[in-house]
Amino acid sequence: MLSVWVAAVFLSFSGADEAAQSGAANAVEPAPSVQIPDGFGDGPTARDYSRLLSQVSKPPRRPGGGGGGNDSCQWANDRECDEPGIGTGACPSGTDRSDCYRIINGIEDDSCRWARDGECDEPGFGTGACTQGTDLTDCGDVIHLRFQRDTCDTAFNGICEEPGRGNGQCEARSDRTDCSTRDRPLTINDHFFGRDDRVMMDTGTFPWSVIGYVTFDSGGTCTASLVAPNVLATAAHCISEGNRIEAAGEFLTGENLPGGPRRARVVDYLVDPNWNEQRFSSTDDIDGTDWALLRIDRPLGDELGYLGAVDLAEAGGRAARRERIWQAGYSWDTGTNLSGNEDCRIVDFNRDNTMAHNCDTTRGDSGSPFMVRRGDQWAVVATDSNFRSNPNGPMIYIAALSSPWVSQIEGFSTGQIGRPQGPGKPDPLAPIKK
To answer: Residue 259 pLDDT > 70, yes or no?
Structure first.
């Protein structure tokens, strides 16, 4: 049995503790260049479509293009300056004028409709509801972090390694935390607990070697982890788009392993029968259904090992609040590096099969595992989902508990259960992409 060890290891959990859901999703204004599907919008309870479904940062700048002072870049009018040097670098110079002209001219004001609401709404370290430079009062404490990332391989090591203000071992703007500070004002979404406590994980050692990411054929990337030799756990919203399941893609893990990363294709999926993308996107009612199991065409876990899984509802929730929690994912701001938390906690259990936590997570971490450890054994207790607004404090970060799928791993692994053939079914078995 895939999870026999769980019963013995987690008998120390006892009692139960549940709390009502709190807060509604944050209000944001949809970008004019994005077609917003049903269930999204700019009302007081709407969720930000791009924030929930765009799991990775923009691709590197492409050569070519050109022209001055126009919006010819495909990323123009997304509220984020994407020109090189002054922005993300995703666009050629002079092709993202509407998003960049304020940065170029040093204009900072409160002209955004969401300004002065106590929450930073700039892209990147805010909600993304405002164009950069138009939410000064709310974002003023963090605009010095604009366009900086922790993509350097040695980020979080306590040594500033950027050129000009460090030893120059890292590229400019790639060692943010070490060259600036781990402090994060509570007005920003990312790392809202006031401090970025993440560290880099070595993907050449277990369990970090079995936490990878799926690049979906339909676009986007999410973190996923091996919970059986041929089964991954991730988030349902990662494979949902336009009320269809789009699960086909390539899984990559263990980039630091001898011989390089291991790859496999997703060939089947299992989601909660109550999963509904539109309802999830517009309410907090079914966050506990935001989980998905993906079957892959190679039993990578036979070589690399895999994580166990535990149902905290059965093992008891109250004692779990005292448990040390590990989490790791491919955050948008750490590039291809696996970053995560080594010592965070469960804050609350909710009646909708979710838990609130205080791990520092952000975009790209969706689907990442929250784990407990007993000796050499690791078990997934939840997967990263989303966050809820909290009028009286910072955002509440939500993860979907593993309870609904723990008992289904073995049947799904052997093909006894899975999705019937139909729209959105992943591609049939195919050679691994090189």
So the answer is: yes
